[in-house]
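Anyone else keep sequences and structure tokens together like this?

Example one:
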Amino acid sequence: MIVLEGPDGSGKSMLGEHLSNILGREFWHPGGAVSDELVPEWMKKCEHKLEQGFILDRTTHISEFVYGPIINKREPVTFKDMTKFLKLCGEKNWKIVYCRPASVLDFNHTKSDYDTDEQIKAVEDNHQKIVAVYDELFCSPRSSFLEDQGCLFTFDYEQKGSFQQLLKFLEINGK
């Protein structure tokens, strides 16, 4: 199982399609953020897909943890809850690939998508918050247990040789 995580515009879908072709596995995207009531149902669906060995563009639990409180102004899932979920990923040997954008403003939007400069600024501010939460989750001492277990790889499109390193990571740790 491979879980691709990261902010919008970080290249998860492109990477997932490419890995799907190389590894001969199905690529699945669970969809966007869901309401609080639907999170448990989506979690079961995602975990079912995870058990089947899919390449998954986001697991809704992580996405809800990051996007829910910022975009939908909800209470965030606690780091304790998130750590519990990430430990489950480690125990089940699910590989997490964190796709980090080259910069916090490196995501797909154009001025024509929004009516005003204030809307553009609000979207950029939200995106910066989202990237900061992902970085805290995947690039901090809190996530070191995932790296120790060989479950986490940070993918950087800008870093020379990153794709070859990713393939080596997946090969060494099983497909």
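And example two:
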Amino acid sequence: MKKILLINPDPVPRILPPLGICYIAQNLIKHHHEVIIKDRSFDKKIELDNIDIIGITATTLNYFDAKKQIEEIKLVAPDIPIVIGGMHASVLPEYVLENSGADAVVVGEGEDIMLQIADGKIQPKGIIRAPIIENLDDLPFLTYEYLDLKHYFNYKGTDRIRWSLPQPSIAMIGTRGCPFSCGFCASNNMFGKKVRHRSVKNIIAEVDYLQEKYKIKSIYFYDDTLTLKRNWMTELCEELTKRKIKWICGTRVDTVNESMLKLMKKSGCKYISYGIESGSERMLNDVIKKGINFNQIEKIIRLTKKIGIGIIANYMFGLPGETEEDMKKTLELIKKLPADAAEFNIYTPLPGTELSVGLDWTLYSSSCNPYHAKSQIHTEEFAKIVNYYHHKAVKSFYLSPRYLLGRTKMLAQPRQLFYSFKSFSKLLADIMRK
């Protein structure tokens, strides 16, 4: 039996536990290893007594936090092998191995590889490429006995989880993989294009456990596209209906229809987050390669609204090749679509995505600049225009009468209304500051 320390280096507190390292922890515990998880957003103290192996995860945006953590550990315990994984390591393994100070880099899904390292079947050295886990039911579902969930349940953040769902809430995934190839997304590099589904029986066993042990009232499904498989989705909704639990998910407008939306509504679906991205057909299909059209978008958004499921619309500004005219079209679409909430992002280049090919990631600084440090996507002048339209979109949506009147629906849900008001106050302060 080995004692393994798993670290989430992100210093920013989150409302939900880190799913990736929780799955690794659960699999190690299943096979009789001892696991300690340190989420640096809540617990800054790292104890290394009797630790045999350290695993650390990193996205592109918190890679430098992971690197700093590795450097600190190596100063006091240079002989403990450190394995780094996650999206950033998976798409830039050679660079991360040389730059991070870790002894090994895992490319892909880490559950089986970390188990083999703990069992002594694989040495924690160099680049280790993980095979796809074909049967997700082979992995144990998450029980969280290695975490204090009160940290997450009590965190006073303003994330959509707080205002959209009854609390306490937890994250889950039902699938891995995405068959689509959007230019800004690196999911295919991590999980592949083949979509693997957990059995509904396996998911429901987790739901039942979480409801009984932690009194969970709602679920956030973190899947790339939950609604891909109609028969599976029908079975899942039928089982969720019996549990009387609320839930939200993200998906695409071309993977739902009226019958599915009605079933989702009946089973407790409160909100669907749709990736709209842009109001420009040129950007949507020639640049992003989303593969949807505006007739589909408007039809499904209005149908979702009619059926009674809330809508969170996602938009993006500052994509490579975008013009001011493209951004004006996005503003027009924002005003046209009847969304209940919206998220407006300024495009950030990420390694492993089609839109970020050719950038020198050795010069990237996620903490200092949302753009690439040397080869900026836009000129400094156009970056200001991007910021202007981003700000205008936020202001026009969240200060509109339609949005403000829509908040009155939460009067019967005082806790969610409180978090909605808190989130809106923070947003309003940001608008005024800008």
